[in-house]
Specification:
This protein is an all-alpha fold and about 400 residues long. It has one domain: Up-down Bundle (Growth Hormone, Chain: A), CATH 1.20.1250. The protein is about 80% helix and about 0% strand. The chain is built from 13 helices and no strands. Helix 8 runs antiparallel to helix 11, helix 8 runs parallel beside helix 12 and helix 12 packs antiparallel against helix 13. The protein is globular. The two termini are about 35 Å apart.
Length: about 400
């Protein structure tokens, strides 16, 4: 029989899997939205960025709320919000409604991701890389299944029926989650006085946040540029586009689990540093791929490299905070993962519109080169501003 730690861990995995599954279901629908709602790449980028806007604005406040009033309340609120957003997608017949759906989904993700990752950090302080790697693998599995499931449901059920089915799935998970016991994580501690402005007093946390923003913006850029590129250059439909993203997610899931396990034992910093350089080297070659098979291979390698940056960055951020007990006495996990989610979402928010503008005015290849330069600059920044910092466990 599972103890409460294992139950909480597996439910965090399930919820994050569900969130990324639903996030990915509309990826193969981008050409449909583009044609039926008459959206250009910049408009589509803004709508996609609404998810990140919700994460950006609410992650840190919800992290503080979770610290003070309990992680269970915030975690349940995230699942409820995800159910609502999924149901509303079925009625998104205008750019404005689609934007609102994406925004609500982002706010729900801010609640579930911040509370969930903080709980894992508190339950497994010395195994964060391994446990977070498994959670990122669940995220990758959601990424795998989201686009092909979205494409197949749209093909066989139709638009509104597709989202009603997914909303029913979310509601069933919400009911199950109501009966899970969270132990000491349910109550919170109202004596904790963490504030948002404390983040700026830890330079290592700030600089690592900048690196996370740049890396996640590359993900956001690819999500908006690649579907239309695959459709325009190679004539792929929604189902085929979903399969390309699904394969990338499959390899990404296994690599995240491996990176998390190894980074606990060999240090988080080398994975982040070399992952940045590998990502920068992969990006420009996407525009040179002669066929979808080569392009899918390159996308997969890029996903592995970016995963090597983002997965170890999470426990590394926590250990940077733990090394400063004067500024962060007795905790801070909720606020730390709120900061990570804020930086991650800022990158996802900036990536789509920036990628859309670069494609529109400079072209696909030039946009990839610019993002590669940003990744190289972030590697240099990490080398001199983060990798030299002392950590609690010297990782």
């Amino acid at each position: 029989m599972l103890g409460y730690k294992q139950r909480i861990f597996y439910f965090v995995m399930v919820l994050i899997f569900t969130d990324t599954l639903l996030y990915g279901t509309i990826v193969p629908l981008i050409p449909v939205y583009t044609q039926q709602l008459q959206l250009n790449p910049v408009m589509m980028g803004v709508i996609f960025a609404a998810y990140s806007l919700g994460l950006l604005v609410f992650s840190i406040p919800l992290g503080i709320i979770a610290e003070r009033y309990g992680y269970r309340k915030v975690f349940l609120a995230g699942m409820a919000g995800l159910t609502l957003a999924t149901a509303l997608y079925g009625f998104a017949n205008s750019p404005e409604i689609l934007f609102c759906c994406r925004l609500i989904q982002g706010i729900a993700a801010a609640a579930s991701w911040t509370a969930g990752l903080a709980m894992v950090a508190l339950l497994y302080p010395e195994q964060q890389g391994e446990k977070l790697g498994l959670i990122m693998a669940a995220m990758g599995l959601g990424t795998i299944l989201g686009p092909p499931i979205g494409g197949m449901l749209f093909h066989y059920l139709g638009y509104r029926e597709m989202f009603m089915t997914l909303a029913a799935f979310c509601f069933s998970l919400l009911l199950m989650l109501c009966f899970v016991k969270f132990g000491h994580l349910a109550g919170g501690n109202r004596d904790k006085n963490f504030a948002i402005w404390q983040v700026r007093d830890n330079p290592g946390l700030v600089w690592l946040g900048v690196v996370v923003i740049i890396a996640s913006s590359s993900f956001g850029m690819l999500e908006i540029l690649l579907p239309n590129y695959l459709h325009g250059r190679f004539g792929l439909g929604s189902l085929q586009i979903g399969m390309v993203f699904g394969l990338m997610g499959l390899v990404h899931a296994f690599s995240d689990a491996g990176v998390g396990f190894l980074s606990d034992r060999h240090g988080y910093k080398p994975f982040v540093y070399w992952g940045l350089w590998a990502s920068a080297l992969c990006l420009p070659f996407l525009a040179l791929a002669p066929n979808p098979v080569i392009l899918t291979l390159l996308i997969t390698l890029l996903g592995i490299a970016l995963g090597a940056v983002l997965t170890p960055s999470q426990p590394l951020m926590y250990h940077i905070v733990a090394a400063d007990p004067v500024l962060w006495p007795g905790g801070g996990a909720g606020l730390v993962y709120g900061v990570f989610n804020t930086c991650f979402s800022m990158g996802l928010m900036l990536g789509p519109p920036l990628g859309g503008m670069l494609e529109r005015y400079l072209g696909f290849s030039a946009g990839l080169i610019i993002f590669a330069v940003l990744l190289m600059a972030s590697a240099v920044l990490f080398r001199y501003k983060v990798s030299t910092l002392p950590l609690r466990n010297a990782v």
